[in-house]
Amino acid sequence: MPRHEINSTLKGETLVRKGLMHRMGEHATLRLVPELNVVKIGGHGIIDYGSEVVLPLMDEIGELSREHKMLVVTGGGVRVRHILDIGIDLGMPTGVLAELAGKISEQNAVITTLLLSKWGGSRVKTSDLLELPTLLHLGLLPVIHGTPPYGLYEHPPGTGLIPPHRTDTGALLMAEVLGARSCILVKNVDGLYTEDPRVNPKAELIADITVEELIKLDMEDMVLERKMLYLLRDTVNVKEIRIVNGHQRGNIVKALNGEKVGTIIRA
Description:
This protein is an alpha/beta fold. The protein has a single domain, classed as Carbamate kinase (3-Layer(aba) Sandwich). Helix content is about 35%, strand content about 15%. The chain has helices spanning about 20-25, 50-65, 80-90, 95-115, 130-135, 165-180, 210-215, 225-230, 250-255, and strands at about 35-40, 70-75, 120-125, 140-145, 180-185, 190-195, 205, 210, 240-245, 265. It has an 8-stranded mixed β-sheet with strand order 3-4-2-1-5-9-10-8. Helix 3 runs antiparallel to helix 4 (about 95-115). The radius of gyration is 20 Å and the shape is globular. It starts with 17 loop residues before the first helix and ends with a strand. This is UMP kinase. Keywords: ATP-binding, Kinase, Nucleotide-binding, Pyrimidine biosynthesis, Transferase. One of its GO terms (molecular function) is molybdenum ion binding. Belongs to the UMP kinase family.
């Protein structure tokens, strides 16, 4: 019996044919907010330090938002580690762990929005991400939590149970779909090191590296989520990630201006 088809360039396609994938890749995509800078604030590296670190950073980001279009993305931090520890101990599957972890970064998004209210801080939920162009035109400073909304459908991690897509990867995915000009991860170290500098003071800062070079190093630990590297290989709009130290004033504006600071990981 013949299949009922609708005329289109994809008529009769399986949507998995390799030749089709290459042909579709030739199409340019719309960059929704090409002047946007996605700035991800680490929960573990920034928010968990409290007012001494957070309040000056809020002032810096707020003032920068007057000249730069920004989307502030929040991480989870120590409370994510706590809920994952409990969940794993109780045998929760990865999808449930992802749901639980997402609640924490949402809490930090609420806190950050309130702290940025002076500069028009406005809470954005993941389902309302496409409202961002309107919010920016209104002069508001959007804040969103970074956990991707995979939830119960989180990908299996390959090893262990910890969800592979967390707030770093969420920031990159949002930057990509919005066609942002930059994706900046604000941490508590000066960038990516050969080893954890808090454990080994002799660890060397890696100022500039490609994603393929970093994957080949197969490092035991990194300051960013490993899943970001594999996503960055496939991104169309975002071609680099920058890591800067949010405990030092002025680093974010240097990153926004393309100055030498922190670590750049290139696609």
